[in-house]
Design a protein that fits this description.
five-stranded mixed beta sheet, 419 residues, alpha/beta, disordered N terminus, 45% helix, two-stranded parallel ribbon
């Protein structure tokens, strides 16, 4: 038999016996009370039958009646009756939740967008490290909340509409393939001073060559020096190489390049031999030997100097930009990931890049055991520390962006006037 749902009038139920008879005759009937009526009905019934003065058997009848009519369970009714006996009015004590409280505000999203604009939208771990350094090293209070931001949620914030309104979406860096075959790989064995060197050409226009960039990266610390020259012939290249080798804070032990004639020649070999620097060159079918320099060509040289043609007559100005702004920024302020090699069950080496090993090249140099022994004789870490902390990471990026913009505007204006 299907149950019925009806509205009821309990004014005729005046005694406990009436309630017992009512329950016996309505076992298949369901009574409907709205949520707002239930508490009032329970209070009214308890008061009308004098619940506190009833015998235990009669109390059970009243509770069965309330359970049958209200739809509450016996446990719920017991709690409600106890509240009524204590003199507490029966009112709803729950509230509708208003949702989760936002941890990161619109100001934090705007600050993240500004940081990405300064540093060129680095990877999530690198950006997290920059914000940590901004708060813990350079005492920038605005980064207090962002300093604890997880890498996963950083990417969530980058997807928010507020972030997208402030940031222009850039296309991915175009790959620049350079065929490399290396004959012998250097073996630094954890010691700094073994350089990977490569050349990057700044494009042709109307048959005219652009400037050339020389990129030298230390294999252990990722300490990097970028320089520019008008041509890669001996007369222009050798002075730039000498300047680059002198710019590293540690003693240079090895020089590794591909098979390009700009490096594999008697003049360069003579220079390196004079400085007691080991000279290695490419091996066939071992392209990973110079992969570090190739990756830095994209992430450093192309990122900061682009792909557009720069006439050769501006090589000195571009080299000054590298010396005064790009090199200090990438070595003292831009975090890098460092690999941790593990051997799996099959004996194969696998590289991992844990977040705790992310640091600037200068910090990596300082972290080496007995790092002072690698410095040049006339240089100390106290001197380098002053340079590393003279300005914050954000200020270094801001100065670099401003100087680069002014230089490119000057080049564009002078190129149009010359045309």
């Amino acid at each position: 038999m299907l149950s019925m749902v009806i509205d009821m009038n309990d004014s005729q139920l005046n005694t406990v016996a009436d309630l017992s008879a009512f329950l016996t005759g309505t076992t298949t009937v369901t009574f409907a009370l709205t949520a707002n009526e239930r508490y009032a009905f329970i209070e009214r019934t308890l008061r009308r039958f004098g619940y506190t003065r009833l015998r235990r058997v009669d109390k059970a009848v009243v509770l069965r009646f309330l359970e049958h009519v209200s739809g509450y369970s016996r446990q719920q009714l017991t709690r409600l009756v106890e509240r009524t006996r204590n003199g507490t009015p029966l009112t709803t004590r729950y509230r509708t939740p208003k949702g989760f409280t936002r941890t990161y505000t619109a100001a934090d999203v705007a600050l993240l967008a500004a940081t990405d604009a300064l540093h060129g939208t680095l990877s999530g771990p690198a950006t997290k490290k920059l914000m940590e350094r901004a708060y813990t090293v350079f005492d920038e209070a605005a980064y207090q909340r962002l300093a604890g931001l997880s890498v996963a949620h950083l990417y969530n914030l980058r997807q928010q509409a507020g972030y997208r309104k402030l940031r222009t979406q850039w296309t991915k860096t175009r790959p620049h393939a350079i065929l490399i075959g290396q004959r012998r790989a250097p073996t630094p064995n954890g010691r700094p001073g073994y350089l990977r060197v490569d050349s990057v050409h700044q494009g042709d226009q109307d048959g005219l060559k652009g400037v050339y960039h020389i990129n030298a990266v230390d294999a252990v610390t990722q300490f990097e020096i970028v320089a520019s020259c008008e041509r890669i012939s001996e007369a222009y290249l050798l002075p730039v190489l000498e300047q680059m080798l002198d710019s590293f804070p540690f003693v240079i032990q090895g020089f590794h390049s591909d098979n390009g004639s700009e490096y594999v020649n008697h003049q360069v070999a003579k220079l390196l031999n004079k400085l007691l620097i080991e000279f290695t060159k490419s091996r066939p079918r071992q392209s990973n030997d110079n992969a570090l320099a190739e990756s830095k060509n994209a992430s450093i040289v192309r990122k900061h100097l682009g792909y557009s043609h720069i006439p050769q007559r501006f090589a000195a100005q571009v080299n000054a930009l590298c010396r005064d702004y790009i090199n200090p920024y990438i070595n003292f302020h831009r975090p890098c990931l460092f690999a941790q090699t593990r051997i799996d069950a099959k004996g194969k080496q696998r590289k991992h890049y844990p977040y705790n090993l992310m640091m600037t090249p200068y910090d990596k140099l300082k972290s080496l055991p007995k790092a002072e022994q690698y410095l040049k004789p006339d240089l100390t870490f106290r001197q380098l520390d002053r340079q590393a902390t003279a300005i914050s990471d954000n200020e270094a990026a801001r100065q670099l962006n401003l100087a680069r913009t002014e230089l490119f505007q000057s080049i564009a204006n002078r190129s149009r006037s010359a045309a």
